[in-house]
Amino acid sequence: MQNINLYMIVSVAFLSSFSHCVGMCSGFLSLQTLFFKGKSKREILMLSTLYSLARIFAYVVLGALFGAFGAVISFSMQVRGLIFFIIGLMIAFIGIALLFRGELLKFVENQKVLNFVVRIAKTRIQKKNLANFLLLGFLNGFLPCGVVYYFLALGILSANFINSAFIMLVFGLCTLPAMLLASFVFGILNEKFKDIMFKISASIMIINGIYLSFLGYRANA
């Protein structure tokens, strides 16, 4: 995965999982807990793990699709350079939107898409069986989220569906500790600490976006 650093992927994914992903997925986490009634802590842990694996599977599917798209459009070095430039700017924009939040973040994390996914999810919890529970986890992976968009953009740049799927797999696995913890306890981390992690994560995105745009510019200079 040329120009895409694994350490950067892990750092952004891990920091974002505690500072942004838990809050972004809080609605789905509350739906998830509806299945936990009468279950032991061990059963809750097992169910939460299965739920997250279904969510991660959704990320991998999206990663493979976006990576395949990147492979199709990157048919020459000049076009590849242009793609790096444009997506680098998009990544920087996502990072700025996450860093400063407000209206920019509302644009990135579209409320209409969120409501649509949540509406489908609510129809799945009428029957509390394992199939619907796993489907809920899978739908969780399709929530509009700036962090997910960031990694999908990296997947496009990888121009390979396997590499892109791997990027999304690593991202998903890095969110696992925070999401499992959130299944048991909400708001366990100090808000100031979460804000610091969030700012570091968003800053890495912005720097990486600018760097990728620079690589794209140099390729066509």
What is the mean pLDDT? 79
Taking all Cα atoms into account, the compactness measure Rg is 18 Å
Strand residue percentage: under 5%
Summarize the amount of helix as a percent range.
over 70%
* Principal-axis shape: globular
Sequence stretches where pLDDT stays below 50 over 5 or more residues: none
Main β-sheet description: none
Tally of separate helices = 10
Could you give the distance between the termini?
23 Å
Structural class: mainly alpha
Pfam family, one: DsbD_2
InterPro entries: MFS_trans_sf, UreH-like_TM_dom
Organism: Campylobacter concisus
Keywords: Membrane, Transmembrane, Transmembrane helix
List its salient traits:
mainly alpha; single chain; transmembrane helix; 221 residues; transmembrane; Putative membrane protein (DsbD domain); MFS_trans_sf
What is shown here, in short?
The chain is an all-alpha fold. It has one domain (6-219). It is built from ten helices and no strands.
